[in-house]
C-alpha cells in the first residue's frame, strides 16, 4: 500500500524543466537579436542589383525571424512567420523590403513614443528625470524642470518622426518619404543629442555632467526596469 502511494505521488509530481542555455544567457539573446535586426536593416538599405533583390529580401526576413525567436523564445511562432513571409519575399521582393522597412520604423519609433509619452502621465515620473536620478541621485528643482521639458521634447520628436513619412508621401516629391526611413531620423536624433549636451551645460550650471555613453547606459537600465510611479519634486 505504501509503495503504491509513493508511485502515485511520483507520477503526479510535475517535472520542472531546467532552463535552456538561451534562457540562462539573456544578455547574449538580446545582443544577438539586436545585431540580427541591425544587419537586416543595413542589408535592406545597401545598393544592390535587381538580380539580388530576392536573396536580400529573403535573408533580411530570416534574420528578423531569428531575432524574434531569440528575443521572445517563441520558436514555433518564428518558424510560422518565416514560412508565411519568405514566399511573399520571393514573389514581391521590392515591395516586401519596403513594407518591412516601414514596419520596423513604425515599431521602433512607436515604442519610443510610448515609453517617453507614458512617463509624462501624472502617475509616472518623466523618463529623463528617472535616467538622471539613477546617475546623480535626487535632483535639484531646476534639473527636475529641465528633465521634464527634455522628456516632452523627445516625445514630440518621436511623434513627428512617425508622422513625417506619410505626410511626405502624400504631399512631398516622389520618393522623398523614404528619407526618414533611410537614416534621416537617426541622423536628426543624433544631431539633437549632441546639441542638447551643449545646451544642457549652458543651462544647468554648478553640476557634474556625464558623457553621452553614460546617458545611453542609464536609459538602457531604466528601460529594462519597471518605471517608477512617483512624480518628481518641482
Secondary-structure topology with pairs:
Layout: H1 2-12, H2 21-24, H3 26-45, H4 53-72, H5 75-91, H6 93-118, H7 127-136, H8 141-171, H9 180-203, H10 212-224
Helix pairs in contact: 3-4, 4-5, 4-6, 5-6, 6-8, 7-8, 7-10, 8-9
Keywords: Membrane, Transmembrane, Transmembrane helix
Task: Produce a short descriptive summary.
The protein is mainly alpha-helical and 234 residues long. It has helices at residues 2-12, 21-24, 26-45, 53-72, 75-91, 93-118, 127-136, 141-171, 180-203, 212-224. Residues 226-234 have low confidence and may be disordered.
Can you walk me through this structure?
- This protein has helices at residues 2-12, 21-24, 26-45, 53-72, 75-91, 93-118, 127-136, 141-171, 180-203, 212-224.
- It is globular and about 60 Å long.
- Helix 4 runs parallel beside helix 6, helix 5 packs across helix 6 (93-118) and helix 6 (93-118) runs antiparallel to helix 8 (141-171).
- The longest helix has 31 residues, at 141-171.
- Mean pLDDT is 82; it is low at 226-234.
- The chain has 234 residues and is mostly helical.
- It contains 10 helices and no strands.
- It starts with a helix and ends in a 10-residue tail after the last helix.
- Helix content is 75%, strand content 0%.
- 21% of the residues are buried.
- The chain folds into 2 domains: 24-91, no CATH class; 97-234, no CATH class.
Amino acid at each position: 500500500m505504501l509503495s503504491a502511494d509513493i508511485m502515485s505521488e511520483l507520477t503526479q509530481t510535475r517535472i520542472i524543466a531546467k532552463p535552456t542555455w538561451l534562457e540562462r544567457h539573456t544578455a547574449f539573446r538580446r545582443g544577438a537579436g539586436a545585431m540580427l535586426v541591425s544587419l537586416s536593416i543595413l542589408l535592406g538599405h545597401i545598393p544592390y542589383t535587381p538580380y539580388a533583390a530576392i536573396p536580400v529580401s529573403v535573408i533580411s526576413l530570416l534574420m528578423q525571424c531569428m531575432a524574434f525567436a531569440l528575443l521572445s523564445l517563441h520558436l514555433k511562432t518564428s518558424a510560422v512567420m518565416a514560412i508565411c513571409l519568405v514566399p511573399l519575399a520571393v514573389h514581391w521582393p521590392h515591395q516586401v523590403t519596403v513594407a518591412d522597412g516601414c514596419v520596423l520604423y513604425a515599431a521602433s519609433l512607436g515604442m519610443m513614443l510610448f515609453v517617453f509619452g507614458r512617463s509624462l502621465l501624472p502617475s509616472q515620473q518623466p523618463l529623463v528625470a528617472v535616467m538622471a536620478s539613477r546617475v546623480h541621485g535626487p535632483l535639484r528643482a531646476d534639473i527636475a524642470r529641465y528633465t521634464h521639458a527634455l522628456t516632452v521634447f523627445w516625445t514630440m520628436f518621436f511623434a513627428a518622426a512617425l508622422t513625417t513619412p506619410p505626410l511626405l508621401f502624400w504631399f512631398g516629391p516622389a520618393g522623398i518619404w523614404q528619407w526618414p526611413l533611410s537614416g534621416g531620423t537617426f541622423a536628426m536624433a543624433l544631431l539633437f543629442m549632441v546639441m542638447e549636451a551643449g545646451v544642457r551645460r549652458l543651462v544647468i550650471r554648478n553640476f557634474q555632467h556625464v558623457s553621452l555613453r553614460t546617458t545611453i547606459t542609464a536609459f538602457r537600465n531604466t528601460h529594462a526596469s519597471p518605471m517608477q510611479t512617483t512624480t518628481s519634486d518641482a
